[in-house]
Amino acid sequence: MKRLLSAITMAATMLFVAPLAQATIITYYADLSGLNESPSNASPGTGSATVIYDDALHTMQVKATFSGLIGNTTAAHIHCCTLAPMTGTVGVATPTPTFPGFSLGVTSGTYDTTFDMTLASSYNASFVTASGGTAAGAEAALFAGMSAGKAYFNIHTTFVPSGEIRGFLAAQAVPEPGSLALIGLGLAGLAFRRRKKA
């Protein structure tokens, strides 16, 4: 009876956790500098940007830190999709004139906002038009571009209106929570089984 109850409990837990494993969560990262701009500039400013995309929830969390800028911030957004990976310039893919809530008129700061990628307002209207006219098309194009190294995070300032610091986003290898949960369940099951044999 105990074995049957244990098997049912484990099966129910796996059925509950299995849908979580279906989500793909990808983390993209970029180091921001004036040398990464096109053309490069002599800004001493530095920063980093992290973009976390969840394809099941259709969300994009954007986190950035920056400091040491010469000019005051005028805008920040993600540009996509360049012709060749890690080089060139291209139009803005995310909201214009800037990310909602991004601090303007400063030389340092932080940013952390999550976007609903099913909404057209999460994109530049011209990017939506160029991506088939739908938010779904824009989402697919943006994340294909990011995965291919053809998207960059750019901070524009009064010192360099076209962008004082930027960095191309690159995918980071991070295990997704669903996979970690399944691994944990498997290890717990093995430990339980081993304990019963002892």
UniProtKB/TrEMBL annotation:
Signal peptide: 1-23
SMART domains to which the protein is assigned, alphabetical: CHRD (SM00754)
Keyword Acetylation in record: no
UniProt entry keywords in alphabetical sequence: Signal
Residues of the CHRD domain: 26-171
Annotated protein name in UniProt: CHRD domain-containing protein
Protein source organism: Candidatus Propionivibrio aalborgensis
Organism lineage string: Bacteria, Pseudomonadati, Pseudomonadota, Betaproteobacteria, Rhodocyclales
